[in-house]
Amino acid sequence: MTTTVETPARPPVADSVKVLLPYEPRSASAARRLVRTALRGWELEDLVEAGELIVSELAGNAAKTGCRRKMTVTVERITGRCVRISVRDGSRVLPCLIDAGPAVESGRGMALVHHLTGGHWGATPESYGKTVHADLRTRAPAPA
Ligand SMILES: Nc1ncnc2c1ncn2[C@@H]1O[C@H](COP(=O)(O)OP(=O)(O)OP(=O)(O)O)[C@@H](O)[C@H]1O
Ligand SMILES: [Mg+2]
After folding, report:
1. Is residue 9 in a domain?
2. Considering its fold, how many domains does the chain have in total?
3. Is 7 inside a domain boundary?
């Protein structure tokens, strides 16, 4: 008699991962790593590039607030078809879309997030800060 032991190809990845990071520009790189690792764990390689750009912008904006405690970066599969990237910081000022002209060097980050998510982003005020989130849709499953 033969016994087959099935082992998963890779360990299961939680539906939600998060990290607390200091309010420093270099935190964007740790945030990108978190997003990359989570998306690869969920086998969503095609979202890695957009996810890394988005979290860089959100973490970069949080770093500019100069808050003292740590920002929280979260990546979650909120539905089978949607991944949410969120950054919580301690400032109650909300992000806005700036209509930057071609010659302007800054004010492009949220416009990029808007573009990459098809407008599926938002900000939720909280008692001691706010959370900015951006949603990426996964590709439709191939027909069976
Ligand atoms: N986490 C945040 N906390 C407070 N204000 C924010 C935050 N994120 C964005 N904002 C506000 O929204 C504006 C637009 O953000 P955006 O990222 O588009 O531009 P920027 O950060 O000024 O420039 P860039 O991203 O091109 O370096 C910011 O100038 C800022 O006023
Ligand atoms: Mg910015």
Report:
1. no
2. 1
3. no
Predicted TM-score (pTM) of the model is: 0.90
Of the chain, the percentage scoring pLDDT greater than 70 comes to: 90
CATH number of domain containing 85 = 3.30.565.10
**Contact (CB, 8 A) for 45 and 39:** yes
Whole-angstrom Cα Rg for the chain: 17
Centre of ligand 1 to C-alpha 15, Å, is 28
The band of 2, judged by pLDDT with boundaries at 50, 70 and 90, is low
pLDDT digits (tens, 9 = 90+) for 9-30: 555 567 999 999 999 989 999 9
Tell the residue nearest (CA) to atom 20 of ligand 1: 107
Segments of the chain assigned E as strands: 16-21, 71-79, 82-89, 121-126, 129-137
What is the span of the domain harbouring residue 41? 16-98+107-137
Residue 74 lies in a domain: yes
